[in-house]
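Hi support team,

I'm filing this because I wasn't sure whether my run with iron/sulfur cluster finished correctly. The job status page said complete, but I'd like someone to confirm that the output block is well-formed before I use it downstream. Pasting the exact inputs I used:
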Amino acid sequence: MSDTSTGSTRLAVTSSPHIAAGVTCSNIMLWVVGSLAPAAVWAMISMGWPAVQLFALCIGSSLLTEFAWNAIAKKKQTLMDGSALVTGTLLAMCMPPMLPWWMAVFAGLIAIGLGKMIFGGLGWNLFNPALVGRAFVLLSWSGVLSKLPNKGWFATLDIPAKGGLDAISGATRLAVAAADRAASGGYGFSLAEQYQPLLWRNLEGSLGEVSAALLILGGLVLLAKGIIDWRIPAGYIGTVAALSWAFGSDPIFQVLAGGVLLGAFFMATDYVSSPMTRNGRLVFGIGCGLFNVVGRFFGPSPESTTFAILFMNGLAPLIDKMFTPRTFGWVKRDEE
Amino acid sequence: MSKAAFKGGVHPPERKEATSSSATQWAPVPGRLVIPMSQHLGAPCQPVVAVGDRVVRGQVVGTVDAMVSAPVHSPVSGEVTAVGPWLTAGGTRVTSVTIVPDAEQDLDSFVPVEGDDVRTLVRAAGIVGMGGATFPSAVKLTPPKGLDVSTVILNGCECEPFLTCDHRLMLEESERVVAGARIIAETVGAKRVVIGIEANKPDAIAAMQKAAGDGVEILSLVTRYPQGAEKQLIWALLRREVPHGKLPAAAGALVHNVATAVAIADAVELHKPLMERIVTVTGRVARPGNYRVLLGTLVSDLLEMAGGIVGEPGRVIAGGPMTGPALGDLDVPIAKGSSGIVVLSPDEAAPLVDDDQPCIRCGRCTEGCPMFLQPFQIGTQANRRDWTAAEPLHPVDCIECGVCSYVCPTKRPLLQLIRLAKAAVIAKGAKL
Ligand code: SF4
Ligand code: SF4
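And here is everything the job wrote out:
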């Protein structure tokens, strides 16, 4: 039992509320990384050493950039908030495994430096840092990228014999699909046969395209934990499926292929660069889906996820403004 | 039974199990009582006794001739030993009367209050909102001219974690709650009486339904904080929004806490002044429970009665942990609005806030805000001391429920910042 006359001097006088929810910034970030982990680990196992290297480079470069920035600016170190780890992981997930090492390092530097720190650090950035990094790489070195063998080391082991995929060096299934559609209005391969590899072991494209199933699993974990709002992925994926169908394409294939799932569950849901209002999030998700599909079908490259989300990031503040609810009690005259 | 709810809010761990089944018991008469002259919103009372005076239970020790006020009474017979400033739970020093009780106390007798009508009796009995608002009840029973109060709502939500005093009251004194509700409804001419209780108290709902009788509806509400906040409760039960800057009467409603209703019934039917109340003493104490405590009992004495604090106290809170003030000194008196004393261990208490933390725009505060404010934005403007930018964000409408601070993952001190903004915007002349 404490003696109140001495005990009272030790009591903290703080302002209410005196209890706090257990969820913290760093554990949100760890959950995001944890939900990406199955897909990421499976990508490394499937693609081999280059994928491991890519993760190490992207994460290392992201962490180091943040550390150095804070050190130079004489600011409090912020690595423990976990956001640089998320950015690094996402960055690796949206890169092809054979990316030259220096590009990966640059991507991390740009993602954290230009994508986040220059705005004032976590919370102040307008765009998703990982996508800023990816966009920078895409725009700066598109020539180099298009010549990259887009398969990991082991890809040659089980390339489906169908559809002449091999014939097009450096093209992903999406590009093949687009090319085929343009040429003949049909696909060079049977779609249903494509679901299986896309779901479990697709070795063409970026690390985030290896297993759609594991990405969906991770997304469901984040939804179940209440870390992300269903409105963004639902709006996004729903729109991609509906529009693909409307444009005469196979909706399931369009959702599973490319960056849609990684984008919808992990990129577009980034708190900082997405709207906070509920309806705003739905609109944001729909917008991402819309631009993703439009870019895919009518843009210069079928890989349009990055720019679709970045574009919507730019609109997020406006969307929030449109959907900010009226303060409770501020009823209009006629309602009174 | 359909369950009503407001929009927004949170559901913190309830932590009520430690005391929800402990029947109310009298706390012993302490060695001294300290009666603050202001236990209510409004004009403080003036002491009407002096050092050395003998007082008896129920005798008025402080009163004032102002419309918005409530007299205070001695809960015991004894001797006045001091009149002077004393620290209260709110952190301010208030003129208080210290009384040393006689060895023998007859708690069944008291000086009855006098009056012929409900309002006079309620005023004379010193009744104030016992849920914590402490607004003088007699004033609330006099709605402004031209407003028609059609519904009386009794608030039995007890949405704050830890507290169970209203729960026990509804179980143990169901009939008195209903009697109070009827008196209030009759006084203001309301046709409808609704008693709202959160669904986490099924036994209280059942007991109240049994006691209710004709014309009194018992409605179950979703268990979510702050369900018991006045405007949120009115909306949940009646789907009516109290307009900005207006009284609940503008929405045709009048809300009283269930404990206030019992006090009103006691004042009107038994002519009994407000001298004691039920206080939930819980958390890190040896004998958590619901105690019927004489007003003026010091928190330190009450904690002693409950077996003392167990382990190192992190924070001692007067009231619930979401809204109550933290006590720096435990020698503060239990007052009319004290619903609980909650002792938190250092790990249970919210971490000390760090003003430096960024907002990660997760949206939790805006989703939770029961007033549909954008707490993060007000917080950002408050950090910049930009009150012109803060004003259109309506900090003045904040009900200080604490949901935003509670949910924030980076532990931004949102409510503190919003309080700053609120004060600054009001100082600039915003209409309340
Ligand atoms: S801004 Fe005020 S009303 Fe809204 S959640 Fe925070 S404390 Fe509650
Ligand atoms: S809860 Fe905290 S981090 Fe989330 S939006 Fe509100 S202020 Fe920002």
